[in-house]
Amino acid sequence: MAKSPRIASVSWGRMEVEGLDAGKDFKLYPGGGRPWDWRETGTGHSPGIQPADVQELLDNGATVVVLSRGMERRLGIDPATLAFLRERDVEVHEAETTEAVRLYNELAETRQVGGLFHSTC
């Protein structure tokens, strides 16, 4: 069973993730991750995280998802995204970024966790 990469550190505008180059925003899932480019799905602060943003996490085996709302909780989550996850019986957590990182790292010890992380606002 592939483990999700651990987040080594997070600060405003910068994250360090094991096995990946440092960056600003990330999609992480069992076995790896990559930078999260909001332009791929048309994501913006409002309405926020789209179903298409979380699909890749599920495609890579995540059964639990952590959604970071940003350091100042300015990133929304589209209600359609929460419905999408509920319909698939995926456990979902949403939190301010530093709390989301803590929770994700904790879950990664024992669960197939995926996460979307925004390291600014």
From TrEMBL:
Localisation: Cytoplasm
Record keyword Cytoplasm present: yes
KW Iron (keyword) present: no
Superkingdom in the source lineage: Bacteria
Alphabetical UniProt keywords: Cytoplasm
Signal sequence, renumbered to the chain: none
Pfam families: DUF498
A cellular component term, taken from the record's GO annotations: cytoplasm
InterPro entries (alphabetical): AAMDC, MTH938-like_sf, NDUFAF3/AAMDC
UniProt name for this protein: Uncharacterized protein
Organism name: Actinoplanes italicus
